[in-house]
Amino acid sequence: MELKLLLLLVQKGERMMESWIDLSSLSNSELTALEQQILQEQSRRVMNDPELIVVEPDASEESHREALAKLLQRKKQ
């Protein structure tokens, strides 16, 4: 069974590069490295999005309160 992953490089809403990776041909360490790269990119996008409110589950109660206050404030607008 062949598993493929489509990688897209998009810059300013324009598709710059498209590449397929055959996941079945990768070793466990290569799959782990690819997974880490994907997670890093997802984290970067989340942290750079000014519209998102991000609170870690183990953050202080005060951080959770602040996030809820921001969310409620946005809902009022």
Characterize this entry briefly.
With 77 residues, this protein is α+β, with helices and mostly antiparallel strands. The protein contains two helices and two strands, in the order ββαα.
Portion of residues in beta strands equals 15-25%
Q: What is the rounded Rg?
A: 18 Å
- What is the mean predicted local confidence, pLDDT? 83
User: Given the structure, what is the number of helices?
Assistant: 2
Biggest sheet descriptor? 2 strands, antiparallel
Overview of the structural elements:
The protein has one domain (4-76). Helix content is 47%, strand content 22%. The protein is built from two helices and two strands, in the order E-E-H-H. The mean pLDDT is 83. The chain has a two-stranded antiparallel ribbon. Strand 1 and strand 2 (14-22) form a beta hairpin. It has helices at residues 28-47, 61-76; strands at 4-11, 14-22. By secondary structure, it is an alpha+beta fold.
List descriptors.
about 80 residues; alpha+beta; two-stranded antiparallel sheet; 2 strands; about 45% helix; elongated
